[in-house]
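DUF2063 domain-containing protein
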Amino acid sequence: MSGQHAFAAALLDPRKACPPGVVSANGADPQSRFAVYRNNVLSSLINALADDYPVVVQLVGEEFFRGMAGVYVQSAPPRSPVMSDYGDDFAGFIEQFEPAACVPYLADVARLERLHVQAWHAADAEPMAQERIVEMLSSPTQTKHLKIGLHPSLRLLQSPFAVVTIWAAHQHQTPVPFDAFSAQNALVLRHGLDVEVFAISHAAHGFITALQQGVSLTAAIEAAIDLDLEQTLAGLIRHQAITHLLAEQVSP
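Predicted structure tokens:
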């Protein structure tokens, strides 16, 4: 292991001693100085996770969260200098973290909060004029081969738990009661400077997923079961999620 890797490994693992060769400029004990530096690094990473997963913090309490995050930090060093990228696999860790098993929906709430962070940092794009969308969708000839472009911030999550309701219940100082064990699909979208979270139907989730994959509007409709097309399209238009409509190239 190189000196740099050994230093990084020792930083995140309190069981490891100060790496050899570390000296203090003012003559202080390197072991104690390194311990202070390590604590600052660990605290900074845990604080970054707490900032990105505030509902998870509320669900388990700050003490439990910091303990859980501390275990995660020791096993998952940052892979990017961009702190908003840190913790992208935290939900998977929570799913395997046995002490959190008593809150079965915790990992999916973390997934929703990660999508919230991703939506906030996603590229911007101008929504298409609603009048133009309605005009193009009203033409049966054009609609048949249209592809719908969606905002870069749009994210989807399918969960066996009521993740949207749980998330919404913790956006207030006094959380409201909720039934966690009811499957929900979430749509996350940035509108201006606000990231919004909506519950959508299972059919709408499948339909929008197909659109994101570049499937034509007609094919996405045909693949969806029990889709309320009018309501789903109206919601996408109302929330300014559609950025462009393109005519699919059809071979002669």
